[in-house]
Amino acid sequence: MVPPKAPAAPVVGPVIAEESEGDEAAEVEATPEPVRKVPARRATAESLAEKQREISVSEFFVKNRHLLGFDNKQKALLTAVRECVDNSLDACEEAGILPELRIEIRELSEERFRIAVEDNGPGIVKAQIPKIFGKLLYGSKFHRLKQQRGQQGIGVSAAGMYGQLTTGKPVTIVSRTSPQAIPHLFEITVDTRKNQPLVLKEEKTEWEKAHGTRVEIEMEASYKKGRRSVDDYVEQTALSNPHCRVLYSPPGQETITYERAVHELPEEAKEIKPHPYGVELGRLMRMFQDSQDRHISTALKNDFSRLTPKVVEDILKIAGVSQKARPRDLDTPAIERVHKAFGKVKIMAPATNCLSPVGEAALLKGLRARFKADYYDAVTRPPAVYRGNPFQVEVALAHGGELPTDELIEVFRFANRVPLQYQASACAVTKSVLSVDWRSYGMQMSKGALPTGPMVLMLHIASVWVPFTSESKEAIAHYPEIVKELRLALMEVGRRLGLHVRRGKREAAEAKKRGYIDKFIPHIGIALTEILDLKPKETDKVVANLKTVLERSRENMV
Known about the structure:
Helices cover 36% and strands 18% of the residues.
């Protein structure tokens, strides 16, 4: 047996390579490993823990107010006015009151303004005023599935907070709930560390209105005319809300009145329950944990829309869950099976009485009131669904008349009757307009650009939950279902526009030909009179006969 070789001793210093036949030994210097410097510990877990603290939603938006639309002074003015107007219109419509708004912007000094928005709505009960205007993420809209302008409960309180940050001034609110009720005046700021209201003043006051609310905010801002201005916003708001009367007082100018074109309220949007197709797993787990029902079959029927007893039975059978199981006792795998079973069962689409579109007649009245054109058209698509949320698309257009012929068309975007004035390129509405070949409908269009010609487009999406791309609510996300419905509506009005344009061209050509007849036939009559020595009566008869023959010939050619 050959004994095992002893391990070689470690080599220290130069390494001598073994000589091989015909080679010289090479001496290789061993490279010493670099000495790594261990950094000194600057902090401990305990010291880091001391620096950590909870922040409120108010504190977050103080540092990130651009997310809410307060990223520059011009836009801040527009956003504040818009949030106040949204609340006023929602309140009036929910109370069944034809809205009448007064919007005032007063310049106090350079880049300092005071805005006031006053409505004739139902007013706000005294106890709720501080929370509504002094607490972010407080309101009645976030958890309700029905069409409404506001969604998150951030807007009007954020506008007041912006005014507080830039001027140190509180929000002033006057509200009255009925002719018999005493009006109350509040001055409120936001405690941004706690996201709680601070009431600086509360008192009874005198107010001539029988019911309504007035909000005043002082802020640093910039007022400019033109596109994306408050002026433009107010005009578009009157266009998409033809049932509203608006009195608008811009800085240093006379009051502009937008009279209501429609004297009836829009159809009331009803609140609906969540649809199973739009519920995510985490939310379903929370719903089951909060459920007070003893049986899961009952919970599903009570908490969701469009779930009949037969559909519930099919869902639970697929999921392998007993109908008598208690919702709160289900474990995560069981809930996940129920969630997956939703997608394996055919469930009726959500109810659409939660939507309140503007309507074709109202859209056309609004367009006719603002634009002098020679052709108007509108279409309202049937309701559709995305992620279990019902929505409806409307498109209206005006063409010809006094509209500019050598400029890009104007596109007005609306979501739940609210104008969208920023981030047009990031919006599904703009994407849909660009995706249509308007050349097929008689318009000029370059690749990747809006069509050119005398046309105005108005596009509106109504939904229980508009998928905005950010908290500032300026653009709609590119959901395929939404883009599809917008395209179908655009192509429908486009086809009818194409017929109108082609008909107009034919009529123009016919008028031109008729003009030739009217222009040259008398000269032919004069020539025939001279050649044939005709009498005046004979000449008139010949001219009339020639006109008749040429008109018949032209009509046959057409």
